[in-house]
Specification:
The longest helix is centred in the first third of the chain and has 27 residues. The chain folds into two domains: 83 residues, Orthogonal Bundle (Arc Repressor Mutant, subunit A); 224 residues, D-Maltodextrin-Binding Protein, domain 2. It is α/β, with parallel strands linked by helices. It is elongated and about 85 Å long. 40% of the residues lie in helices and 22% in strands.
């Protein structure tokens, strides 16, 4: 038996038919007639010397040989598609697709993008606001901004400042709750989007940093940080706000942070792209702008005593 590979068109026809388990649907995907697709699969079977499908009335079924070939064929075409997309992307210096969490997109990126767009009118910026960890090799994404303590093997990574949290509230609520101890009677808002962090960065931890032993039983919980902050702006309660999520609202006076003690998480944001892609003009421009914007607002941290969460002992 010859080890020479069969024609690519025949393998492609087989891959489509194996995925759909239908010659008609596979033909529609490849924009050929069912007769043409059947001919390609028949030629592949002749090349192999055994059938790949059992033809039944109105349906097909993979033979043992077909089941052996299908995973490799699917993986091979996926690898080709990935390589083709990556190669085409190298020629595009005007489009930039960025993925970031919905909260960071809404509270940090979107309010600042005007400056980037004005400085780089030649770049078409596209955002995918999702918490799904997208694959920079397979997905059509150039840059990912992720938060946490993860290791990003094989990627170009620029870690940025760690997050800290402090109570934030409307000016009216600040008058109602003038001391850390008074917050025990306040309606507290919980940001559950960072509940995965260890040690925990929650209200119990912040109270402990203030020398108070208190674990809230009640309160309003949000799975997205931006929703928690928006609720605080609406006067629903007091949020333990993350620096990145409340900095603009603090600067604009919608919220105030009257207690100048913050707890610092072990997690941080990272700017990520494929290794080697950091030199592409649009990626380098966005990275430089992103890091400069973080540095431009870094002075807000000078107003607070920031305590690393791992340094807060139990009472």
């Amino acid at each position: 038996m010859s080890n020479r590979l069969p024609p690519l068109t025949a393998l492609r026809a087989f891959d489509a038919a194996a995925r759909h388990m239908s010659f008609a649907q596979a033909a529609a995907e490849l924009h050929v007639t069912p007769a043409a697709l059947s001919f390609q699969i028949k030629s592949l079977e002749e090349h192999l010397g055994q059938p790949l499908f059992l033809r039944k009335n109105r349906m097909v079924e993979l033979t043992g040989a077909g089941r052996s070939l299908a995973p490799g064929a699917a993986e091979g075409f996926q690898s080709l598609a990935t390589a083709w997309t990556a190669t085409r992307r190298l020629q595009d210096n005007t489009t930039l697709t960025v993925t970031a969490g919905p909260a960071l997109t809404a509270k940090w990126l979107a309010p600042r993008l005007y400056e980037f767009a004005r400085a780089h009118p030649e770049i078409d910026l596209r955002f995918s606001a999702t918490l799904r960890k997208m694959d920079l090799t397979r997905d059509d994404v150039d840059v990912a901004i992720r938060f946490g303590e993860g290791v990003d093997e094989g990627l170009y990574c620029v870690p940025v400042r760690k997050e800290w949290l402090t109570p934030a509230m409307t000016p009216e609520q600040a008058e109602q709750f003038p001391t850390p101890k008074s917050l025990m009677n306040a309606p507290l808002i919980h940001d559950d989007s960072i509940s995965f962090l260890r040690p925990a960065c929650d209200w119990t931890t912040w109270f402990r940093a203030m020398g108070l032993e208190y674990t809230p039983i009640h309160g309003t919980h949000f799975s997205n940080a931006d929703h928690a902050v928006d609720a605080a702006i609406a006067g629903v309660g007091v949020v333990l706000g993350r620096r990145s999520m409340i900095s603009k609202d603090l600067a604009d006076g919608r919220l105030i942070a009257p207690f100048k003690t913050a707890i610092e998480t072990k997690g941080r944001f990272r700017f990520l792209c494929l290794a080697g892609a950091e030199t592409r003009p649009q990626i380098a421009a966005f990275r430089d702008w992103f890091l400069a914007e973080i540095d431009r607002t870094a002075h807000i941290s000078d107003e607070f005593t920031i305590i690393p969460v791992e340094d807060i002992p139990p009472l």
